[in-house]
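step: validate -> pass
step: tokenize input -> pass
step: predict -> running
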Amino acid sequence: MESLKSEIAATAARLVVEEGLEYGPAKRRAAKQLGLAARTALPDNDTLEEAVREYLQVFCSDTQPAELTALRRLALVWMERLAQFRPHLAGAVWNGTATRLSDIYLQLFCDDPKSAEIALIEHGVDYQARSVTGFNGELVEALSLSSHSAELGEPIGVHLMIHDHDDLRGALRPDGRGRRPRGDFADVQALLAQEGV
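step: predict -> pass
step: emit ->
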């Protein structure tokens, strides 16, 4: 059973890195590619993240660090623009597994949920609004836009997840492995400083 989960994780990791899939769709597609039944138990996200890290180390060690740096720099641009909404970086760009195919996920903590949307409108930013499941399990609004990365020479998806200001307290609790699931502007700057940027 565990070897099967490892095989699914390895296949899914390739899909995450090479095609930019999110973890859920990558795991389901991997199981299908391996000819497994729809009810097959899938690996958890921590297992898949480890497989992604291994894949990056083996196949992308010459390109991924620079791509990650470029994405973190672009994230800082948007965090600075949206500073009034207490932006926190999450996802692959935060945890270090991002490639040029990865999107940037910023969680905003607003006193008024519409204020971030109004700010985008005032700055003439084109975006799409939709509802997604937030880190607390409830539906939150997500504002998705495209932002050009000069370093990568291509557009990058930026997703702004709108949370209530009071959610910020719970947002900074470490995960089951003791890691912080998101970081603020200073945290991202510190990551870039560690990379020697």
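step: describe -> Residues 2-59 form one domain.
step: cleanup -> pass
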